[in-house]
Write a structure and sequence with these properties.
By secondary structure, this protein is mainly α. It has a two-stranded antiparallel ribbon with strand order 1-2. The protein is elongated. About 10% of the residues have low confidence.
Length: about 130
């Protein structure tokens, strides 16, 4: 999640931490705020990853395809990219408990369906989720 979004969601606490740091000539309140905000935003990614690994059967080895509909993984990719447009295939693979090759295959399908668009270069660009019009 971009830092700007974290600050926006926690604006009052952000300004309070800045004020406390400025008044006390100590940067610790601001650093504590930022670490907490980043940590809290990561919990949702951990939840997504936990859901995907607990859905697989107990006897299924890691990264072996399970009879999961393609759309389920694709939808999770869309959710991740909405909150973090710069997410890499490697990071998404880790979060979802699949291989990066699986993520790339789903991204290719999403691009072909017109649901996902890459803006900029592979290194410094980002993903845009194209909203479906009913």
């Amino acid at each position: 999640m971009p830092i700007e979004t974290l600050v926006h969601h926690n604006q009052a606490n952000y300004y309070r931490a800045l004020q406390e740091s400025n008044e006390g000539k100590d940067c610790r309140p601001f650093i504590d705020f930022m670490i907490d905000a980043i940590g809290n935003s990561l919990y949702k990614y951990i939840d997504i990853a936990t859901e995907s690994t607990t859905d697989a059967g107990a006897n299924v080895p890691v990264n072996v395809p399970v009879n999961v509909p393609v759309n389920e993984v694709s939808e999770k990719i869309i959710l991740i990219l909405r909150s973090n447009p710069k997410a890499t295939a490697k990071k998404m693979a880790f979060m979802l408990g699949v291989t990066d090759k699986t993520i790339k295959r789903h991204i290719k399908t999403l691009r072909e369906q017109g649901r996902l668009k890459r803006v900029g270069s592979d290194k410094s660009g980002h993903w845009e989720v194209v909203e479906r019009v009913p």
